[in-house]
Amino acid sequence: MACKVFTIANQKGGVGKTTTAVNLAAGLAESGIETLLIDLDPQANATSGLGFEKEEGRSIYPALMEDGDAADMIFETGRKRLSLLPSEVDLAAAEIELAQKDNHLGQVTEAIRPLIESNIYQVIIIDCPPALGMLSMNSLASADYLLVALQCEYLALEGLGQILSVVERLHEAGVNDRLEIGGIIMTMFDIRTKLSREVVQEVQTNLPDLIFKTVIPRTVRISEAPSFGQTIFEYDKSNPGATAYRNLAEELIKRFELKNA
User: Fold this and answer.
1) 124: part of which helix (H) or strand (E)?
2) Angle at the Cα of 249 (from 243 to 254), degrees rounded to 5?
3) Fold of 4-255
4) pLDDT band at 261 (very low <50, low <70, confident <90, very high)
């Protein structure tokens, strides 16, 4: 079964992007999908969220600079079927250095090609920085599908239009013709507020084929879990957030036919 590459991106920070990358990857692994999470954010929140410290020289950075093999940087996380290609501070330099390369939007594609062709992973999830800089654009150029984590607030809707237009520009420029909008994940939903309900309703009305049915609730336990280096399934498996991410993983499996036939 061919490996599918998903990038989770949004130019706005604080929308639950990294939380979704970590817990969706864990949910897929729990459901029997061999999954690799790539932390492409120099802040390394996905790395620490899985309980790992940043290590100098251990990230995708050497592979981006054509000075190493991405496969050599991968951690087995101790969680069945979930692997991690971590991040580190040096990755911040890639924003400048990638721009100086001839194939400046194709470096992540080249770095992860051996991982895709290895047939080890069914899914690769890339967590991007909270900005549409060189790393995020490289991620979009390498992916099959974009997953948009969208916070349930009106300002987030403005950003949605911007990132969807970026995908169109990548198509028009011939950078990544296969990139599709894989779906919109509504995060930080507070059922008590009219605003949350209205934002979800607006996305459902305007983009009914893209929005996932599963909505991720705003819960304290989801926010606490990364500080313990745990997924929500490990930190509080009965929490509504754990149920939501488990349902989201199953929805993704069904939408993209991830299970082996």
Assistant:
1) strand 123-127
2) 125
3) Rossmann fold (3.40.50)
4) very low
Backbone angles phi, psi at 66, to 5 degrees: 60, 40
Q: Do β-strands 180-189 and 145-151 pair in parallel, antiparallel, or remain unpaired? A: parallel
List 39's β-bridge partners, or say none: 127
Residue corresponding to tokens 């999830």? 125
| pLDDT score recorded for residue 23 | 97
Q: Which residues contact 243 (CB under 8 A, 6 or more apart)?
A: none
Would you say 211 and 204 are in contact if contact means Cβ atoms under 8 Å apart? yes
Tell me the CA end-to-end span of the chain in Å, nearest whole number. 9
Residues 6+ positions from 176 with CB-CB distance below 8 Å? 140, 141, 142, 143, 170
Separation between Cα atoms, residue 149 and residue 16, nearest integer Å: 7
d(CA 128, CA 13): 10
pLDDT in tens, 132-166: 889 999 999 999 999 999 888 877 777 788 888 88
Contacts of 166 (CB under 8 A, 6+ apart): 132, 137, 140
